[in-house]
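Re: zinc ion structure - here you go.
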Amino acid sequence: MQTYAVDGRELPLRIAGDPALELVNTLARWSGTSTDQVDHLHDYDDLVVWARECGLVDEVAAARLRRSARRDRVTAGAVLREVRRLRRDVHDLAVGLGRRAALARVSTLAVEARQSQSLTATADAVTWRFTRDAGLHEPLYAVAQAAAALLTSDASGHVSACPGDGCGAVFLNPSGRRRWCIMSVCGNRAKARAWAARQHASRDPAPS
Ligand SMILES: [Zn+2]
C-alpha cells in the first residue's frame, strides 16, 4: 500500500471509501504471510493521527488525546490493542470470514461508544459528541461506530479485496468494476508479471 507522510509518520493512502475499511488497510499485505505484513499503527499517536486524517476525531480532540496518552501509556497501549482486534474483526466481517464472535465484539464496542456520547447543540445542528468519559477510547469508539454503520448499510455487500500479490487491501466497490486497490501499484505489477510470463513462454516453447 502506498503511504504519505503526515506529522512525521507514514500512513497508508486512503483508498477504501469508508473509514472502517481504511482502518483495515492500516495493516498492509493481508493476503501475504504474517511476516510480510506491515502495521502502520505502531503506537497510540499513529492511531490518533490516522483517526484525525479520516475525520473520526477533530483537531482539538486529537491534540488532547496525544497529550493524555503521554500521561497514561498503559491505557493508550490497551486501546491500541483493542483497535487492532477491531481491525481484524472488521476485515473478517467485510470479506465474509467473520463469525458471530467478531460481530459480537463490534457490537459491544459500538454500544459502549454510544454510552460515552451525549447530544450536543452546535451552531447549526444537534449531534452526538463524545464526552470526556470516552477518554483515550475516543478513536477506538469512533471507528467502532463507523464499523457498525458500514455493517448495517447496503454498502457492506459491496466490499472487494485487492487480488494483487499478497495485497488484500479492501475497498467499497458498488459498481463491481474496480479490481485493484491502486491501479499504478497492484494493477501495474500484475500487468508486468503477465508480460514477463508471456516473454518467457515465447522464448521457451513447450516441448512437442
Ligand atoms: Zn492491492
